[in-house]
Structures are given as C-alpha cells and as structure tokens.
C-alpha cells in the first residue's frame, strides 16, 4: 500500500463552511468507499487554535508548517477578500517549492491575484471578487471558468 495523499486545508476567521465541507467530505467519502486509506487531511491556520466560520461553526486547527509535507494545500475563501490572513506569499512558496499543488478558492484567489500583480488572465475568482478587483486594479480579464491551473497554483471561483 502506498502512502496516503495529504491535504492541508487552510482556514481564516470567517471561512466559508460550504467550501470546507466540499473539500473534507469528498476526501472523507473517498476513504470510506475504498479498502485502503487514500487520503489524510490537516486543518491549518496562521496561528493554530480555534477558527470560526462565517456561519459560527468552529474548527480546531494547527499552524501552517515551515516545512510542509502535504501534497496539496487548499486555501478556503471567507467573507472578506482583503482579509490579512489570506496573504500567504511565503507559505505558498513553502508548499510549491516542495512540489505541492496549491488550490486557492474565491477570496483566497482574489487576494493572490491582487498581491502577485501577475496576468489576471491566467487566474479566476468568484464573480463578486472579480468586481472588487476591477475597482482596485482597473480593467482586466480573468478567466470565466470555475478553475484555472497556472503552474502549481490553481485558482478557483469557489463558493459552490
């Protein structure tokens, strides 16, 4: 049996519970229907401890590691695209330098697009966040798709 695929799921205050459930429940159910444990996951935050969703549900987290060993990092969106806790430049580099795939959902994708000032056409985000970005950065075009892969970074519309 090969080692399970490991997912780190990053949450910040006000995270979207449907995005959390959409990630965790899919990998939990995949483990349930398979004879072997295929996946493991860790719930992460900047400092560790209890983090509250926009729906008032709380989850316990551990801090993002300096030397991550996960295969994937999912960064969930929240109610504020300007949320400082979604500014993860060095942490994202820690994951991608170890060949992990990084998946940024909704507001996390918007924060990444605004901070990297890269080609917005190689990314996507939720339509509400796209409008805010256009007000801040001027006219630009993001992909009108649910997800866009650009190297080891995948940006997603999220919220679905």
Which helices and strands, and how do they pair?
Layout: E1 5-10, H1 17-33, E2 39-45, E3 49-52, E4 58-63, E5 72-75, H2 89-96, E6 101-105, H3 106-116, H4 127-137, E7 147-150, E8 153-156
Parallel strand pairs: 1-2, 1-5, 2-4, 5-6, 6-8
Antiparallel strand pairs: 3-4, 7-8
Helix pairs in contact: 3-4
Q: Overview of this structure, please?
A:
29% of the residues lie in helices and 25% in strands. It is an alpha/beta fold and 160 residues long. The relative contact order is 0.17. The chain has four helices and eight strands, in the order βαββββαβααββ. β5, α2 and β6 form a beta-alpha-beta unit. The chain has an eight-stranded mixed β-sheet with strand order 3-4-2-1-5-6-8-7, with helices on both faces.
User: Termini separation (Å)?
Assistant: 33 Å
List the quaternary state of the chains.
single chain
How are the strands of the biggest sheet laid out side by side? 3-4-2-1-5-6-8-7
> How can the largest sheet be summarized?
8 strands, mixed
As a percent range, the share of helical residues equals 25-40%
Q: What is the averaged pLDDT score?
A: 82
Q: Structural class, please?
A: alpha/beta
Number of helices: 4
Shape: globular
Runs in which pLDDT lies below 50 for 5 or more consecutive residues are none
Radius of gyration: 15 Å
Give the SSE string.
Answer: EHEEEEHEHHEE
Query: Approximately how much beta-strand content do the residues carry?
Result: 25-35%
Total strand segments: 8
């Amino acid at each position: 049996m090969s080692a399970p695929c490991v997912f780190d799921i990053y949450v910040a205050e006000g995270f979207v519970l449907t995005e959390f459930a959409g990630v965790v429940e899919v990998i939990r159910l995949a483990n349930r229907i398979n004879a072997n444990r295929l996946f493991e996951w860790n719930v992460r935050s900047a400092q560790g401890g209890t983090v509250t969703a926009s729906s008032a549900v709380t989850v316990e987290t551990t801090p993002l590691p300096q030397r991550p060993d996960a295969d994937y990092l999912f960064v969930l969106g929240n109610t504020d695209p300007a949320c400082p806790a979604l500014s993860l430049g060095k942490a994202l580099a820690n994951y991608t330098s170890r060949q992990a795939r990084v998946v940024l959902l909704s507001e996390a994708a918007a924060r990444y697009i605004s901070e990297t000032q890269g080609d917005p056409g190689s990314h996507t985000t939720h339509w509400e966040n796209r409008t805010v970005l256009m007000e801040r950065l001027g006219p630009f075009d993001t992909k009108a798709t649910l997800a866009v892969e650009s190297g080891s970074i995948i940006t997603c519309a999220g919220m679905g």
